[in-house]
Structure to design on (1002 residues):
């Protein structure tokens, strides 16, 4: 049987922001959600794409012979599990008890065969495993292959969730509750986006929902950042920018983001 | 009533004030802070010159001028402190040391004329007695390979403080008199040593007098009590060996001032074990509590940012971390200045201690502590000779900027000898072009190795000259006092050391590795560039931006599994083989390391464009670190792996220099992740880790206006410095390193 092949957007080593400890994060292409504030817009389309950064272009007009300045970059390369594991393995000594592999995206469950094979291979090598998912899909095999599932709760109601992400909250909510029964540790997060969900009532409602799920051991608020805008521009897409929440606002909202 | 916390706050304020004043007096400097205090109004030294070339050398010249400079030093007593004494000026300045000469000296017409007059060496002006010990034959090749020769470099070895602490100044005088009688005909040596000690006693006496003067007007009861104690301590250790923890700290503080004033000399020691007997005895006697011990250590660290090692293991691999080790970390936290503490990491070390050390690193963001790896240092050093046993190798501790030394037994000249291997590559390319015919990477590498061999031979010749004569030029009159066999034989430390394992660092590893990888990839594998195009680009400094981008975009050293990573390993193997292959007399040997110190700008200026797309005159790479942009994610783990793979392996360092965002510690498990990074790098064979926690906003603000954060400390290379005191060029380099994530 041939090895599953994934379309990988990027691999980031030494990450301390995508789960506990030191981690290697594999970003996969493809996501069914269209969050307006998405900071990885290059990971939405499942196919490889070219990004163009004009500030890096030296105007040599020899693009066809290859771009070496970083102005034209292809996002999305085919990789086998072995290809990815070479990178993941390089850091195994640094993962310790808490760190390891995080499969992220995009929505990693969109490439379910590849994601599952990666997680299982990492587990077999004694490397900690995690996914960062929107919870739009239910996939028990994948969740059972994880030591940790990280997921977002962006908005607590169908109407607003659909308006801002393209999908309702109900299936996500159902999957989160179902996952709670598997006994896998769950880490919940909300990207705080002014004008979308940066208010006490919304955060409070999300926290209240999460509070009843014992497997959710931590709830984090992540400040919106506009890193996706430059990438939208590089993709030739319309730019959507939001206000960056102030430190004060984040501190205020944290008071409502308690679990128990 | 003033608490210790109040007094520490005042001491920190004074330190900031001094940093600003020193910046005014000295100008910008890319050097260690050294703990100096500003010069007083009217300070002047009239040097005594005893050489034909207008400088001073030898036992008599050094001893006399040490007295003149030390005697010009007024007492320094801050009633907020419990220890006294500071240094401000050093006698080698008066030999026209252009490298260290501060602005206030350059403005002095007498000294300016002195520096400008007569024959001078390119490197150190008149520090070396070139009339008696010329080396004109070596200079062309030293220049050709951009070699830091080590000739006339001072110190860079370590004292065995146990000798001084057990004898005191009185005991040292008796020891000198005893051996003078045994070693007939060495009066010059013993006279010079005695002259220096008497100047030291006068310095202590001035402090006793100053304390007495301050007591006449001091009305705060707790400060009166503190000053009286300080005076008693000074009186007790004037001649006697220190008996209490307070006395031991004061004795060290004084000795460090003397060694610094002499030639900026000296190095630290294993702080938590050498001071432990004093601590334990005082606690048992009920005369010392932990708060006072912490305050005394904080004061000692304030007085001089010497490099002290803490924690580690003994000769049998047992953890030596003790209660005092913890107190030292807490003390450093309480004063939080440029504390050069190195934690020695071993698999048997106390994990709680390592965690606390990393916590303080992130909490204070001042570049301390740093970490050294026992395994590679121990095993590597033992490889130098079958005569080096495990106990000796373990005694070789972190006491310098990037370097290790066996205190009181080794004369390593560490950090004074360097070869710019990017310059060596430049010479190899010149030869390759001159040969005509079809160039090849294999031939270029042969030429690089041939040039490096010549460079190593020139280094060895320079080191031999230095070792043969430095005792006649700059005898180590202060450090000899605590160097095994020196007083016993009437010989300078440079003559009587048991170990001559001489550090020889290569600089520019990443530039050369990336250059060779760019040639292999673009010219020989992909054929997208020709040799002719490369040579033309080196000549016109990469006028063709596209060609530059092609060469620059080849995966770099430390990107992980790249062609450049392979070349870095090959270069290391060659460097080690060639440096180790140099034959030297009298048990001397060269020990390879990768380190550029603060010379990456200076070395870069000497090298034209290089095949990795680096333009002429741009800085070379920093120590063993990769070039900027080595990975898009700037992965510290990839960097740690890359640097672990290029360790020369003989007990000298190829440091891992990291810049971290302070936010890492805010994440859950961030501290543990860094601890794991440290442990794993050392497990893979790493030797030294320097970590800066750089807050981007603060750094950019301080770069724009250095005086806005006068207390901000950065670990520049192995050493720490106040960011505000660095030259604009070096500040820019630190900023770039931060922005590039290396």
């Amino acid at each position: 049987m041939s090895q599953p092949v994934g379309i990988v957007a990027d691999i980031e080593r030494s990450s301390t922001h995508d789960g506990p400890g030191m981690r290697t994060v594999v970003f996969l292409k493809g996501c069914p959600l269209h969050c307006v504030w998405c900071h990885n817009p290059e990971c939405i389309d499942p196919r490889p794409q070219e990004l163009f950064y004009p500030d890096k272009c030296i105007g040599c007009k020899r693009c066809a012979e290859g771009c070496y300045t970083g102005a034209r970059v292809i996002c999305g390369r085919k990789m086998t599990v072995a290809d990815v594991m070479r990178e993941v393995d390089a850091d195994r000594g640094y993962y310790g008890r808490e760190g390891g592999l995080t499969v992220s995206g995009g929505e990693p469950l969109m490439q379910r065969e590849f994601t599952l094979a990666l997680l299982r291979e990492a587990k077999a090598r004694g490397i900690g495993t995690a996914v960062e998912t929107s919870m739009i899909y239910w996939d028990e095999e994948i969740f059972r292959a994880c030591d940790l599932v990280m997921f977002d709760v962006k908005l607590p109601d169908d109407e607003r969730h659909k308006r801002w992400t393209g999908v309702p909250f109900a299936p996500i909510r159902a999957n989160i509750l179902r996952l709670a029964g598997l006994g896998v540790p769950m880490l919940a997060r909300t990207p705080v986006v002014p004008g979308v969900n940066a208010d006490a009532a919304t955060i409070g409602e999300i926290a209240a929902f999460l509070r009843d799920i014992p497997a959710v051991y931590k709830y984090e608020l992540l400040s919106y950042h506009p890193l996706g805008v430059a990438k939208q521009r590089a993709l030739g897409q319309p730019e959507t920018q939001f206000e960056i929440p102030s430190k004060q606002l984040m501190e205020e909202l944290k008071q409502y983001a308690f679990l128990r | 009533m003033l608490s210790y916390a109040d007094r520490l706050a005042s001491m920190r304020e004074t330190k900031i004030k001094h940093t600003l004043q020193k910046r005014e007096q000295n100008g910008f400097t890319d050097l260690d802070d050294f703990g100096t205090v500003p010069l007083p109004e009217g300070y002047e030294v009239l040097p005594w010159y005893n050489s034909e070339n207008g400088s001073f050398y030898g036992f008599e010249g050094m001893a006399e001028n040490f007295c003149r400079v030390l005697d010009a030093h007024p007492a320094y007593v801050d009633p907020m402190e419990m220890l006294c004494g500071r240094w401000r000026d050093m006698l080698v300045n008066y030999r026209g040391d252009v490298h260290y000469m501060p602005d206030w000296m350059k403005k002095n017409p007498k000294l300016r004329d002195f520096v400008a007059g007569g024959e001078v060496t390119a490197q150190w002006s008149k520090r070396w007695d070139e009339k008696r010990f010329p080396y004109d034959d070596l200079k062309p090749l030293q220049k050709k390979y951009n070699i830091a020769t080590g000739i006339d470099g001072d110190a860079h070895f370590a004292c065995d403080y146990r000798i001084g602490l057990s004898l005191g100044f009185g005991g040292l005088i008796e020891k000198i008199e005893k051996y003078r009688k045994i070693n007939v005909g060495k009066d010059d040596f013993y006279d010079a040593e005695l002259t220096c000690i008497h100047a030291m006693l006068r310095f202590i006496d001035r402090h006793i007098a100053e304390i007495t003067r301050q007591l006449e007007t001091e009305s705060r009861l707790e400060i009166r009590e503190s000053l009286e104690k300080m005076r008693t301590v000074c009186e007790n250790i004037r001649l006697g060996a220190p008996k209490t923890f307070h006395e031991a700290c004061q004795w060290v503080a004084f000795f460090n001032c003397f060694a610094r004033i002499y030639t900026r000399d000296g190095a630290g020691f294993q702080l938590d074990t050498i001071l432990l007997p004093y601590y334990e005895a005082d606690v048992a006697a009920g005369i010392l509590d932990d708060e006072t011990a912490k305050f005394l250590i904080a004061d000692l660290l304030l007085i001089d940012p010497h490099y002290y090692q803490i924690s580690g293991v003994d000769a049998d691999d047992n953890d030596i971390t003790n209660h005092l080790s913890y107190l030292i970390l807490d003390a450093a936290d309480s004063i939080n200045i440029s504390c050069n503490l190195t934690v020695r990491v071993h698999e048997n070390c106390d994990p709680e201690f390592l965690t606390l050390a990393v916590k303080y690193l992130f909490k204070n963001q001042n570049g301390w502590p740093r970490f050294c790896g026992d395994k590679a240092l121990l095993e590597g050093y033992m490889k130098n000779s079958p005569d080096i046993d495990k106990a000796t190798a373990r005694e070789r501790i972190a006491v310098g900027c990037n370097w290790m030394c066996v205190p009181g037994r080794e004369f390593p000249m560490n950090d004074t000898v360097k070869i710019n291997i990017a310059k060596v590559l430049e010479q190899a390319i010149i030869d390759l072009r001159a040969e005509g015919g079809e160039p090849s990477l294999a031939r270029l590498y042969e030429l690089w190795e041939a040039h490096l061999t010549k460079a190593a031979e020139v280094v060895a010749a320079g080191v031999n000259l230095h070792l043969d004569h430095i005792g006649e030029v700059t005898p180590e009159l202060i450090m000899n006092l605590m160097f095994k066999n020196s007083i016993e034989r009437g010989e300078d430390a440079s003559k009587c050391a048991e170990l001559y394992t001489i550090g020889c660092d290569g600089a520019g590893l990443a530039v050369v590795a990336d250059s060779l990888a760019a040639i292999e990839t673009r010219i020989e594998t992909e054929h997208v560039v020709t040799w002719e195009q490369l040579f033309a680009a080196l000549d016109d400094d990469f006028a063709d931006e596209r060609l530059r981008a092609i060469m620059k975009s080849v995966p770099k050293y430390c990107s992980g599994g790249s062609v450049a990573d392979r070349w870095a390993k090959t270069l290391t193997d060659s460097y080690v083989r060639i440096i180790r292959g140099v034959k030297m007399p009298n048990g001397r040997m060269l020990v390879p390391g990768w380190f550029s110190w603060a010379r990456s700008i200076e070395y870069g200026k000497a090298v034209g464009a290089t095949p990795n797309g680096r333009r002429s005159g741009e800085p070379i790479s920093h120590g063993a670190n990769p070039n900027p942009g080595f990975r898009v994610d700037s992965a510290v783990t990839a960097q740690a792996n890359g640097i672990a793979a290029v360790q020369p392996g003989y007990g000298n360092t190829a440091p891992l220099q990291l810049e971290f965002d302070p936010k890492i510690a805010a994440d859950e498990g961030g501290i543990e992740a860094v601890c794991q990074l440290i442990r794993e790098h050392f497990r893979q064979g790493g030797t030294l880790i320097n970590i800066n926690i750089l807050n981007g906003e603060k750094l950019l603000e301080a770069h724009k206006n250095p005086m806005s954060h006068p207390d901000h400390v950065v670990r520049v290379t192995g050493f720490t410095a106040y960011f505000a005191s660095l030259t604009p060029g070096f500040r820019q380099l630190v900023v770039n390193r931060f922005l590039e994530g290396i």
